[in-house]
From TrEMBL:
Belongs to the cytochrome P450 family. Gene3D superfamilies: Cytochrome P450. Transmembrane segments: none annotated. The lineage of its organism: Bacteria, Pseudomonadati, Pseudomonadota, Gammaproteobacteria, Oceanospirillales. SUPFAM superfamilies: Cytochrome P450 (SSF48264). PANTHER family: P450, PUTATIVE (EUROFUNG)-RELATED (PTHR46696), PULCHERRIMINIC ACID SYNTHASE (PTHR46696:SF3). This is Cytochrome P450. It comes from Vreelandella gomseomensis.
Length: 313
């Protein structure tokens, strides 16, 4: 997405996902949701973190942005997973391609229904905001709203569960950090940022070269496909002292896990808020549960724990 459509969509999301709306509207909703999911964990002697917390938390918080009923989580999860595995897979079978096509058609129908519902019953969500805007300069068609909603659902739900699993993975291996959090000498935000730096969930960003150019002494030709490796940039020792160490107290924190340039993540403020809230609620879980075994990591475009089993101490 580029040009005017990109500008309009960016400005709509920014207006709805930053500043006082975040603090006054979304923070209490996310805090309550997180409390109820953490309480569900405490009912269990053992659980798999990604499916019992990470995926649910990331998807349900995103549902609030576009007013999707929480009861539809399994339906949406199944279809979004099919699209994500199509978008990030290297060896795609015909079966996976067909599943992704069907999923995107079904999601389109579901979101068109939501748009029509929001027209008769507006809510406090991004779709209602777009529909009720009077400014004819940035009116979006229904199909543009569908694309925007799908962008948000995929972009917002894919990385968040991975960051949370990484955060607790680092807490298990850096127990002193839990003490620093309790004393207040380290913030939850700093732990989230250091985890994002060391293990970025969006791992690899492809770009197509538009014009012949030279970058850092390397000639790039029009039509070349290049892959930007975010974890490599985030561990550049020109910028980060002891780059492979987990150190939430490090002074220089400017990782590029939210991307850079015109396509930089527009949900970063929202993500930082939801991640800090969740980590604060999950830290006591880390003290009451232990790892059954170290997590399994997977993925190339997006990368994170695929299975992470914990059990009560
Ligand atoms: C930890 C959480 C997140 C991470 C690490 C992350 C990372 C990224 C990265 C690296 C990009 C740039 C991709 C590129 O250059 O091709 C991006 C773009 C984007 N992100 Fe996020 N994201 C996160 C959460 C979110 C959330 C919560 C939302 C929405 C609520 C969101 C919405 C978007 C959108 C719409 C774009 C496309 C922006 C554009 O093309 O201009 N992201 N994200």
């Amino acid at each position: 997405m580029e040009g005017d459509e990109h500008k309009i969509k960016n400005s709509i999301i920014r207006r709805n996902l930053t500043g006082s709306i975040l603090k006054n509207h979304y923070r209490p909703i996310i805090t309550n949701l997180c409390d109820s999911l953490v309480n569900e964990l405490y009912q269990k002697k053992s659980f798999e973190f990604t499916s019992n917390f990470g995926k649910k938390f990331s998807l349900l918080t995103t549902f609030n942005l576009i007013s999707i009923s929480h009861e539809r989580i399994d339906w949406f999860l199944e279809r979004l997973s099919a699209i994500a595995s199509f978008a990030t897979g290297f060896e795609l079978t015909e079966e996976k391609i067909q599943a992704a096509l069907l999923a995107s058609e079904e999601l389109e129908v579901a979101i068109l229904e939501l748009i029509s519902e929001r027209r008769s019953h507006p809510g406090n969500d991004i779709i209602s905001f777009i529909i009720n805007k009077n400014d004819s300069h940035d009116q979006l068609s229904d199909s543009e709203i569908v694309t925007l909603s799908l962008n948000i659902l995929l972009a917002a739900s894919e990385p968040v569960d991975k960051v949370l699993a990484n955060c607790i993975y680092y807490l298990y291996r850096n127990r002193n950090c839990i003490d620093h959090l309790a004393e207040g000498s380290c913030s939850y935000h700093s732990v989230v940022q250091e985890s994002l730096r060391l293990s970025p969930p969006v791992h690899l960003i492809p770009r197509l070269i538009e014009n012949n150019t030279c970058f850092e002494g390397i000639n790039l030709k029009e039509g070349n496909l290049i892959f930007c490796l975010i974890p490599s940039a985030n561990r550049d020792d020109k910028y980060f002292y002891a780059p492979n160490n987990f150190d939430p107290l490090r002074k220089f924190k400017r990782h590029i896990s939210y991307g850079a340039g015109m396509h930089t993540c527009i949900g970063a403020q929202f993500a930082n808020m939801q991640l800090s809230i969740a980590l604060q609620k999950l830290t006591p879980v880390v003290e009451k549960y232990k790892e059954v075994k170290p997590p399994e990591f997977g993925g190339i475009y997006t990368r994170g724990a695929t299975k992470y089993f914990l059990e009560r101490i």
